Amino acid sequence: MNSQKYDVIIIGAGPTGIFTAIEFVKKEKNIDILILEKGTDLEHRVCPMKENPGTGCVNCPSCAVVSGWGGAGAFSDGKLSLSPRIGGNLEKYIGEKSLIEHIEYADDIYMEFGAPERVFGVKGDKLDEIKKKAIKSSLKFIPAKLRHLGTGYSKVVLQNMQDYLASKGVEIRFGENVKKIITEKNEIKGVKTASGKVIYADFVVVGAGRENAEWLSSEAKKMGINTAINPVDIGVRVECPAVITEYLTDNIYESKLIYQTPTFDDKVRTFCMSPYGEVVSENNQGLITVNGHSHSDIKTENTNFALLVSKTFTEPFHEPITYGKDIAKLANLLAGGVLVQRLGDLLQGRRSTSTRLARSIVDPTLKGATPGDLSLVLPHRHLTGIMEMLEALDNLAPGLYSRDTLLYGVEVKFYSSRLEVDQNLETKIKNFYTGGDGAGITRGLMQASVSGIVIADSIIKKL
User: Fold this and answer.
1) Which residues contact 277 (CB under 8 A, 6 or more apart)?
2) Contact 69/36 with Cβ under 8 angstroms?
3) Rounded distance, CA 174 to CA 305, Å?
4) Cβ(161)–Cβ(18) under 8 Å?
């Protein structure tokens, strides 16, 4: 059906959009659903930089790494946090008890579509041991259960979900970039795409990812929807030999560690630990930033993870995304993309070169990164916090604070301004809902998926 009037339009085929549609199909059989996604399906999500290592970003019209079926999660590490304390702020909207129940429900759906059974981070003597060592190093350790899909397995699960929705009559249009939300008298009417198509619906759900955060904030402003400023996270991707972090990764897979730096009292945290993984670059709103993956079927000799400095800005500043983008622009200006530096070179106040990198015991997995100097990119305050946390982490993973440890920059998490929504994630515009990372409500796959379930259940009750 190519009708231009639907019961529900879902913008974005990331976890929020996908789980909204799955919940509709499971609980309500007679809803006309249209999913609009500006990217492509999984089969055609191919990054030229991945196909031709060493080449720079060619600025595709829609970045295959962050756009397309599955959203940025399709090429992510596929980590499903089973803890309500990690991955967003949904407990503020639906309560912690309800969030725990929803996470269990969403996890069952992932399992239904092929997620592996193993769960990391379960209770045990090793967790207690790690917690004690963390405390002695002034690190806050957050235990969390984690189901790991792996980059390859994520695609299998996501493809199963797409096939299921298609078999149930859900219409999915790729290459459709929504530019405008259409309202009338504070009620949703439909959307307008970049190609000029106007499509009407009784309900509109926006599941935009972080890449479309600015667009969503702009549309919210036009509709009079209030927003609140979220922190911006800026830092580096750390890469070291996998044997250095085995004590952590073999027992809990991903370490959630927080450090309040002694010099500036800033919050620095670990994020997205990728054992035996690879460092990758991605096009983030026209900027080349760094990320990391672990594959389910391919292992390297290295482990990588992010160290992010969180900053919440106060009045009169209202543009944390712009702040993060400008730092990323500086790295792109100096390196033409991602910059890499040995920790030893940084400590000695000199840039890394190809010759110095070649002497390192760590073989970089991101071959296209340019050797350089992170001190010319990151603010002194951020860089000081990162160095201080690395030194603290060396107590948990001896050898991490080594001259050969590699630092890639920059890694920036563009959390959008948080849109004002009610407990059902409905905005002040009647029948207009939004959830996920792009709405500033969640920060990870699981809570983004849960937000889709919450939205669908609310709409089903209305119907």
Assistant:
1) 77, 292, 293, 294, 295, 300, 302, 303, 304, 365
2) no
3) 32
4) yes
- Find the helix or strand (DSSP H, E) in which 310 lies: strand 302-311
pLDDT single digits (tens) 98-108: 999 999 999 99
CB-based contact 82:119 (threshold 8 Å): yes
CB-based contacts of 389, cutoff 8 Å, min separation 6: 259, 261, 268, 307
Q: Kindly give the pairing relationship between strand 198-206 and strand 187-193.
A: antiparallel
82: tokens are: 């089973």
Token representation of residue 32 = 């006309």
Crossing angle between the packed helical segments 15-27 and 445-462, to the nearest 10 degrees: 40
Which three-class secondary structure state does DSSP give residue 317?
Answer: coil
| Helix, strand or coil, per DSSP, at residue 296 | coil
Distance CA 350, CA 279 (A): 23
Closest listed residue to residue 377, CA positions, set 416, 405, 336: 336
Token pair in block for residue 249: 């990764």
CB atoms closer than 10 angstroms to residue 310: 18
Please give the pLDDT value at position 49: 67
DSSP codes, 114-167: T--S-EE--SSHHHHHHHHHHHHTTEEE----EEE--HHHHHHHHHHHHHHHHH
Check if the beta carbon of residue 58 is closer than 8 Å to that of residue 51. Answer: no
- Measured between alpha carbons, how far is 233 from 289 in angstroms, rounded to an integer? 13
Name the helix (H) or strand (E) containing 303: strand 302-311
**End-to-end alpha carbon distance in the chain:** 21
Domains identified in the chain and CATH numbers: 5-119+147-228+418-462 (3.50.50.60), 232-413 (no CATH)
Predicted pLDDT at 232: 82
The model's pLDDT over 398-456, given as tens digits with 9 standing for 90+, comes to 999 999 999 999 998 876 678 999 999 999 999 999 999 888 899 889 999 999 999 99
Low-confidence residues in the chain, pLDDT < 70: 1-3, 49-58, 76, 122-123, 151-152, 285, 296, 415-416
3-class SS shares of the chain: helix, strand, coil, % to 5? 35, 25, 40
The pair of three-digit structure tokens given for residue 73, joined into one six-digit string: 């999660």
Core vs surface per residue 206-222: b (16+ CB within 10 A) or e = bbbbbbbbbbbbebbee
- Those residues with Cβ within 8 angstroms of residue 173's Cβ, 6 or more apart along the chain or in another chain: 34, 35, 36, 37
